[in-house]
Amino acid sequence: MRTLHIGVNLKGWLQAALAVTLLATLAACGGGGDSGGNSSTTLNGGSLPPSPTQQPIAPNASNTVPITVGRGVSGVINIPAVSVTICAPGSTTNCQTIDNIQLDTGSFGLRVVGSTLNASLLGALPVSAVSGGQLAECATFADGYTWGTVRTATVTIGGETTTAAIPLQIIGDKDASTVPSRGCGNGSAESTVGDLGANGILGVGTAPVDCGTTCSDPSTAATYSNYFACPGGTSCTRTAVPIVQQVANPVANFAADNNGVIVQMPPVPDAGAPSANGTLVFGIGTQANNALAGAQVFTTDAYGDMNNSVFNGTTVQAFLDSGSNGYFFTDSSLAQCANNFSGFYCPSSAQTRSITLVGLNKTTASASIGIVSAATLFGNTSNFAFNNLAGQIGGSTSFDLGLPFFYGRHVYYGIDKSASGGQSPYVAF
């Protein structure tokens, strides 16, 4: 659902607002969606590629946490959710576990809607300061933006805890009147649980912080920084922020198992499922349950992008993004939906498309995806997990392999450790 706009690097996420509004009114029924897709399925007269068949491991180890796709807090489709525990710095008692945090491999850092936190905890999370004022962030996504202060907290996910308090964003804790008139406001404000479709966003992609040198270097921060100094809590202006004060990927700050994550989702039927239960595994090659085995490894830029990939003869920026609820790309040969499903593709028969993924290490692989009319899929109003939902993305230079790509796969994200002489960022599956 969320792909963060970092500096000049806008990656796409699209959500058909009318479709979401429709689905938000529906009550899900039925159990888990762990029955596999068919090896080859015919739908509406067309055919789909074979479905991947990997199953997630049980989320019962200290370096694992369950992932749930279902109706969630507001009935948005294909939203993978996890639980996160937040504690006031230095406290083991002033803590709160927040469920329904969206797992997003296309962004970096933890963002929590302020209204989900109890008053005691929220009041104990210190607001960061910069340039003589409160530090706030406008995290800009393709569909909207989150505005709120940057605070610090200790974060626990599963059995893993950050070694110290880290910066995170509290969404919606500043009045809308404080939103800067310049440098923020792409799309709609996503300040509430209803706006966001989740209680927060957990960005666990390849970057250790959400902006890096673009926001720490005054020469680039003046134009591209996500961060704002707010003297007296108002009059917020763009500012440079040291990297240590930027919203941080919690995984990179764990004591162990901090070099990456594995997103493991079960297969789902080609017509969709009411729910799907997967596992988020912390660390790669650090324990017996997280080996990098039998996977193709693609080194990427700092943000997990494979910038030399090819679709329909055009070089595209491809990325594997659990936070996008569909595949999003440009293909004029695919009919777009009308009315309630605007933004999604509605081909008259099932379709297959292939993209050639190319890593910086020259690893090359073809990935085939299936596309079924969104109108057909949404006809079963109890389903919230879909492996062949696709839609239009602005421009023709991006290819977003969203959550449908993850079903039946183990997808790996190696966190960028190159600043300290460690591994380069990579994705693998």
Automatic annotation (TrEMBL):
Transmembrane segments: none annotated. It comes from the Bacteria. Residues 54-63 have a biased composition (Polar residues). Residues 1-19 form the signal peptide. The keyword Signal applies. Residues 38-48 have a biased composition (Low complexity). Keywords: Signal. InterPro entries: DUF3443 (IPR021847). Residues 38-63 are annotated as: Disordered. This is DUF3443 domain-containing protein. It comes from Paraburkholderia ginsengisoli.
